[in-house]
Fold:
Amino acid sequence: MPHPLDTLDWPIFTERLLLRRAASDDLDATWAYRRLPETYEWVTAATETYDDYRERFLDEERLADLLIIELDGTVIGDLTLQVQDAWAQKEVADQAKSVQGELGWTLDPAYGGKGYATEAVRALIDISFKSLGLRRLHADCFYDNESSWRLMERVGMRREQHTVRDSLHRTRGWLDGLSYALLAEEWPAHE
Structure:
């Protein structure tokens, strides 16, 4: 079965950015910012060596969910969209297949504070609802990762859950976690 992102015409342009499917050639460009301490601190699965990163990056399943953010031909970050099934009772489970998505993002810190992440995530939300027909999007982060949850709020996502010390960080121990979400019918209000 093709990945939902395969159904779209790439690249997609925003006001300042180009979004495109990731390719194996993006390995070095993404490694350049993902290995930085300020990025490494918050990514879900950090890799310490280039060889480990290469193995993880080139995983076909992971690569299928990955989009690249370019600014004037330079890779400045990446986005993920994992299309998922919603929880449902058995009798209606077929109606809950591939109806929601989990969003993720990583931006090169050198390009932070200029609205690029906000612009890219808004474009991905638009793609998810309008082109892919998803009904709900969600994203999670550590409470301590303020730039991430502030981004979720800027793009109009709603904080649905604040959990207490349920999320294990690789160096900081047990931290609070946050979950945000947005429904398709809520999105037009944020355009």
